[in-house]
Design a protein that fits this description.
Elements (H helix, E strand, L loop, with lengths): L11 H18 L5 H14 L4 E11 L2 E12 L3 E7 L5 H14 L3 E8 L2 E8 L5
Parallel strand pairs: 3-4
Antiparallel strand pairs: 1-2, 2-3, 4-5
Helix pairs in contact: 1-2
Length: 132
């Protein structure tokens, strides 16, 4: 994670905590588990740190004020950051697009995709350019 801190980042303080938790989880569990186990460990850490979150939060996709479907996000932390977990060697366009849709539909400013690889934990911050 390093000691470099950029105060211009959106929600920098809570973002650093989220990413730090992911690294702690990887250091304890390692690689090879299903996504749900990393998610459970993440929820446990958020509880210990008394950080508010919603797990598996649904948001409606609306068209002309009517729901036409719904998305299921892994986590919404502190009512403002979408956190998605993946277990794969790299992120693809589909992963980024999925999270961009969550941001757009939910009106969130920031998402963090955390992905566990055999070479370590990695993350990507995704900013909602529609509301920034």
């Amino acid at each position: 994670m390093g000691n470099i801190k950029n105060d211009n980042l959106i929600y920098s303080e809570i973002s650093y905590k989220i990413v730090g938790i992911a690294f702690d989880i990887f250091n304890k569990l390692g690689y090879g588990f299903q996504e749900k186990y990393y998610q459970r460990a993440f929820a446990k850490e958020l509880d210990l740190l008394k950080i508010k979150y919603e797990k598996e939060k649904n948001i409606d996709v609306k068209y002309k004020d009517e729901s036409i479907g719904r998305y299921l996000m892994d986590f919404v932390v502190d009512n403002k950051i979408v956190v998605e977990f993946k277990v794969r060697p790299r992120l693809g366009y589909i992963d980024i697009k999925q999270v961009l849709n969550y941001l757009k539909v939910g009106g969130f400013k920031l998402a963090i995709i955390i992905y566990f690889t055999n070479s370590g934990v990695k993350y990507r911050r995704i900013v909602n350019s529609y509301i920034i």
